[in-house]
């Protein structure tokens, strides 16, 4: 399964229209979601914006910007729940083991 995910990442990199400038592999769990969120916000402030997340995280190098991240865990995601977040400007960057990472351009520190 891990090998298949790595092959998928390599395929996406080779065929992507955007240039992936950094790939990180970092363990994260629901018990450390605040620490993980802070890590993502710090790396984004340095100019690396998350492109996607799964087994690994892809970051694109861009101008530093303020993006808030939120790690969410719900047993059963509904379309209504996702539409509520998307209507508020949140974008799902990916998921792993039932946890989803949402991102939103922001001026304030509210998740």
In words, what does this structure look like?
- The chain is of the alpha+beta class and 111 residues long.
- It has one domain.
- 32% of the residues lie in helices and 31% in strands.
- It contains 3 helices and 6 strands, in the order αβαβββαββ.
- The strands form 2 sheets. The protein has a 3-stranded antiparallel sheet with strand order 1-3-2.
- The longest helix is centred in the N-terminal third of the chain and has 14 residues, at 2-15.
- The mean pLDDT is 76.
Strand count, sense and closure of the main sheet? Answer: 3 strands, antiparallel
Query: What portion of residues belong to β-strands?
Result: 25-35%
Helix content: 25-40%
Q: Find the structural class using helix and strand composition.
A: alpha+beta
- Number of helical runs? 3
Number of strands: 6
C-alpha-based Rg, rounded: 14 Å
Q: What's the overall geometry?
A: globular
Oligomer: single chain
The number of distinct structural domains comes to 1
Distance between the termini: 32 Å
Average per-residue pLDDT, rounded, comes to 76
């Amino acid at each position: 399964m891990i090998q298949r995910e790595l092959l998928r990442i390599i395929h996406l990199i080779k065929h992507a229209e955007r240039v992936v400038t950094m790939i990180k592999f970092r363990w994260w769990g629901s018990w450390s979601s605040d620490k993980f969120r802070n890590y993502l916000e710090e790396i984004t402030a340095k100019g690396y914006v998350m492109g996607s997340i799964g087994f690994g995280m892809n970051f694109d190098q861009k101008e530093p910007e303020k993006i808030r991240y939120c790690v969410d865990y719900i047993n059963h995601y509904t379309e209504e729940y996702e539409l509520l977040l998307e209507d508020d400007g949140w974008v799902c960057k990916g998921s792993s083991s039932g946890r989803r990472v949402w991102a939103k351009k922001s001026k304030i520190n509210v998740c």
